[in-house]
Amino acid sequence: MSSVLIGATALYRQDPVFILLQASTPTSAAIILFLAHKYRGMVCAFHARQGRAESRTSYVRLRTAGVLPLARTRRSCAI
């Protein structure tokens, strides 16, 4: 709500700095949404490695906490 009031005041006073500032927010949000839609389901190499490491750590943490059984099936060995 405050950004709408700042934008309205900037338009009323014809202040180009604040008008551009208010225009940049929805523009960047639109670009982020467009790129998120375009690349949905894809993971970069860094985050793919991080995800694999976290899944292994989570498995060990759950197993040692007694949540998962100690025996692993052949299918789950690919972690």
What features would you describe in this structure?
The protein is mostly helical. The chain folds into two domains: 1-40, no CATH class; 43-79, no CATH class. Helices cover 70% and strands 0% of the residues. It contains three helices and no strands. It has helices spanning 2-13, 16-38, 45-64. Helix 1 crosses helix 2. The longest helix is centred in the middle third of the chain and has 23 residues, at 16-38. It is elongated. The mean pLDDT is 76.
Distance N terminus to C terminus?
47 Å
User: Can you summarize the main beta sheet?
Assistant: none
Tally of individual domains: 2
The average pLDDT is 76
What's the number of helices? 3
Report the C-alpha radius of gyration, rounded. 24 Å
Give the tally of β-strands. Answer: 0
Alpha-beta content class:
mainly alpha
Content of β-strand: under 5%
Shape: elongated
Topology order in helix (H) and strand (E) letters: HHH
Helical amount among residues, as a percent range? 55-70%
Query: pLDDT under 50 segments (min length 5)?
Result: none
